[in-house]
Amino acid sequence: MTDSRSAERDDATDALFKALSDGTRRALLEALVRDGEQNVQALTQQSGVSQPMVSRHMAKLKRAGLVTARRTGRETWYAARVKGLAPVIGWMAVHGALWSQRFSALEGLGE
Fold it and tell me: 31-65 burial, b if ≥16 CB within 10 A, otherwise e?
């Protein structure tokens, strides 16, 4: 039985992986990390997809905690929230260590 905090962490990690599963979303996030805060118009020009699709992708990244949004007049500006990747990095560290141990054990069998 899992406690509620563990379930919430699992849900947050699931949301992050789902958000990062799409190549367009990863490219949009990378553009924000590389070039800093940008508005939807700039992201649309870079991505080659329609403005409504960019807005939908950005909404998913925002729900996953990977970007922040701020309104200035009629424009929405997005910025990367790199700390949002912490649960994924933690998951990868744990599972990377487990796989490393298993690979080491397999290598030992061949000796």
Answer: bbeeeeebebebbbeebeeeeeebeebbebbbebb
pTM of the model: 0.75
Q: Which two tokens stand for residue 94?
A: 């744990």
Beta bridge partners of 39: 77
For residue 14, the model assigns a pLDDT of 86
Q: Say how far apart CA 38 and CA 42 lie, in whole Å.
A: 6
Q: Name 67's Cβ contacts closer than 8 Å, sequence gap at least 6.
A: 29, 32, 58, 61, 78, 79, 80, 81, 84
CB 52 within 8 A of CB 14: no
Work out the percent of the chain whose per-residue pLDDT is above 90. 58
